[in-house]
Each structure stands twice: as structure tokens, then as C-alpha cells.
Amino acid sequence: MPVEISENDDSVEMLKNIHISTYNDNRDDDADPEEVEDLMNDDDDDDDDEDDDEVQKPVTLGFVEKPKNKWSLLRQLFPSKAGGVPAWLDPINLPSGRSRLCDICEQPLQFLLQVYAPTSDRESTFHRTLYLFMCLSMSCLLKDQHEQWKRPAVNASRSVKVFRCQLPCDNPFYSSEPPRHDGSDKPLGSGAPLCNWCGTWKGDKFCGSCREARYCSEKHQAMHWRSGHKVMCQNSSRNAGNSSAEDQKSASSSPWPEHEIVNEDEAEYNVDVSTDLDNANCLVSKNQMDDSINSLIDSFQGDSDRRSWGNFQERIARAPEQVLRYCRNVCSRPLWPMSSGQPSTADIPKCSYCGKPRCFEFQVLPQLLYFFGVKNDADSFDWATIAVYSCEASCEGAASYKEEFAWVQVSSPSQVVP
Ligand SMILES: [Zn+2]
Ligand SMILES: [Zn+2]
Ligand SMILES: [Zn+2]
Ligand SMILES: [Zn+2]
């Protein structure tokens, strides 16, 4: 259910009408800001100058589901999705060069999720999608913990990256008519050829032998070669002409299975927690979820972290399967699991394209890893939350994919390498 940001908010005109949605969903304006409680945790050890007394904005929760149809998550349907490969909004001018690599190990980044969040007040943001990528190496993520504090941000070596892409209603890639969602929707043209291994990044390098298989990187070429292209290479040159690059299935399977992200208004869950926990319709039992999330707390040090964790957990318990919390507003802030390692307003770098401040837009919760089937043990890949900040002006500019900013709290401060 799409949630529009409250109409009586006049703090920042341009943030009105921002929502995550399905393009042709019926608009639903029943979110009552009066019912929305204070979303924030206590940040008494934070010297932030933000006004925490301000009425908090409604939060839209994201949940993952198996895609309803095999066409449900194609780019012409403007999906919000997690896992699998990205559905590139602008299918031609993809992020290129170093921006698609982990700055630390220099390997291509893995797609985590994308959120379709258009704004209806401006022509240039009729379609708007944010993409989140990260390196699968936990040691890179731990190094990234230090890099995220670096200023200017362009000097930081990040293993987590966010891109923003937006298009007007009238654009070269899609019809201006809303999709019919019956399997018949088609984009106006094909996109750039993608890497045959990862299916994620532009395939701008060729296999030297067949001149047909395309790759984003030497690493992916080597992986494809070892996993069978060595044999297929000879055959594929005989079948030349059959492969249309964009639609070709990637040879690797994503470590994170593809899911659709569906939205619910958090206000729907503002019921007594004790009754909610007994909800028999829960896909995941309370105990399973507790195991996956409680294992984090043992490593927390200090009372303020424990208190923060308590607030976080109480809030999440209203809808324990949520994987994403969306609330784009200049005065909204993430629900931080820990009080230590939170950025102040000054720690969030300004937009590198227009110089305007960035505001919080959404956060990703560790429950997503549970739905991805990532094992929950001491050495496994993990985070406590990833908060995404984007240009408050959603500025336009030359680059089709503009890099925004992610702040990561890892699950245990003691894991952070000195
Ligand atoms: Zn890396
Ligand atoms: Zn690749
Ligand atoms: Zn080849
Ligand atoms: Zn900007």
C-alpha cells in the first residue's frame, strides 16, 4: 500500500508526495499523522542539533515476497525488489568505471535491493529508483566502517554504494501509459548488453575467443570460463546472432535470491505488541526471528547501546518480518539499533552534484539476510542496519545514476577493526 507523505507538511515543499509505490496502485491517503508515534530512539549521547520533538512522519514498511509472476520484476514494471539482478530504470547509461567496484577489494559490487520512490510534484522525478549495492566480503564491510566517516566523501573507499536514477513521464525508454501488469508490458527498446556472468553491470568487455560473451570485469570473465564457458565458447560462435544481450540470463546465480518488496503502512501495525507476537499467520515464527536478531545483542557493550537496542527491537516487533523502513523527510531519522556509531547531521556529506544537503530516505534491516537464507553464525556476513541518504532536491544532472550515501552500522562494535 503506498503511503504519501502527509499533505499538511509544509516544511519542505519538494518532499511532498514522495512515496514508494507500484506505478498503477490506487492511491491511498488514509495514513493519519496523528496516530504516528515518536519514531526515534533516545539519542542522549548525540550532540545533534535536530529537533526531536517534531511530529514524526509515517513510516512505510517493506516486506519481501516471492515474485507473483516471472515478469513481475522486469524494469518496465518499475519494481521495488531485493536480490537477483537490478531492474535498471535507465537501461542504457548504467553506472560505469570504478563506481561499480568495491573501492577496497576492487571487485564488482553485488546488488542488494532497489526501491521505486517517485515524486509526483516534479516532472523530472516521475520515475525515481534508488539502488543499493555492497561487497560480499565482511572484511571489506568492516573497513568500510571507518571509511564512511571520511570527509570529503569522495576520498572514502566504500564497499556499500547507492545510486539514484530518475526519469520524466515522457522518456525514451518507457511508454507514458501506466503498465497493465498482465504480462504484456514491454519497454520501448532494449537496454545495454549486460555481463554474461553477473547480469548486473554493463558488459563492455568481450570474450577474446568467441567475441560474443560479454563481461563487466576480468574476474567475471574468469569465473564464467571456469564454470563452463570454456566448453560453450566453441558452440556459441556457431550460434552467433541468437543472443540478444540484455535479455540473456546471467550465468551465475545471485547469492541472494530474488524477491519482490511490497509495502505496508506501519500505522497498520500499531497494535498491542503482545497480541501481535502471537500472530499465527506469521511466515516466520517469533522464535526464529529472535534467534537471528538476538544473537546481535550479546556483543553490545554499554548501557546506551542496550537501551537503543531495546527501542529498536520493540519497534521492529510490531511487524517482525519487515526488511525495510521508508520515511523520506528532512526531519526523519533512521531507527538506529545502536547508539554508538550513529552519524550526526554533519557526518552526512552534502550532495556531490548540487551541494544541497542529503536527507534520510530508507533503512535496510538485518532480517533481509534471513529471507536471503544467509546463515546466522559468528563469521557470517551481517549488518545491523544500512541507512540510505539522498539529495533532498533529487537534483538532475549529467549522470543518469548519481551516487548517494549509505551509513552502515555493523552488528557488533567490537567487530570493527581498529
Ligand atoms: Zn570488497
Ligand atoms: Zn559481471
Ligand atoms: Zn567465448
Ligand atoms: Zn543533489
UniProtKB/TrEMBL annotation:
It comes from the Eukaryota. Keywords: Metal-binding, Zinc, Zinc-finger. Pfam families: PDCD2_C, zf-MYND. Residues 27-54 have a biased composition (Acidic residues). GO terms for molecular function: zinc ion binding. InterPro entries: PDCD2_C, Znf_MYND. Residues 21-56, 236-258 are annotated as: Disordered. This is MYND-type domain-containing protein. It comes from Eucalyptus globulus.
